[in-house]
Amino acid sequence: MKRVFMYTLSTCPWCRKTKTYFADHNVPFQYVDYDLQTPEEQQKIEQEMKNRGGALSFPWVIIGDDLIVGWNPTKYDELLGSTQAR
Description:
This protein is of the alpha+beta class and about 90 residues long. Helices cover about 45% and strands about 20% of the residues. The chain is globular and about 40 Å long. About 20% of the residues are buried.
């Protein structure tokens, strides 16, 4: 199974929905709540987001080597393969 990693906001309803999506589909994932990090760590996260060409928007999801910005379960399914996401 591909690694799933996310940058999220602790107060973002779309971020919570994304976490729930992966949990409900039994897909292991890791995440960092951007807004709960120190200013220095936030700056590092912003730089990573810029370096990968993603918008500074949340949720920011990496599946394998692919980046998806925002709530997009169709794309999550596509990248994980139908048997892994179901």
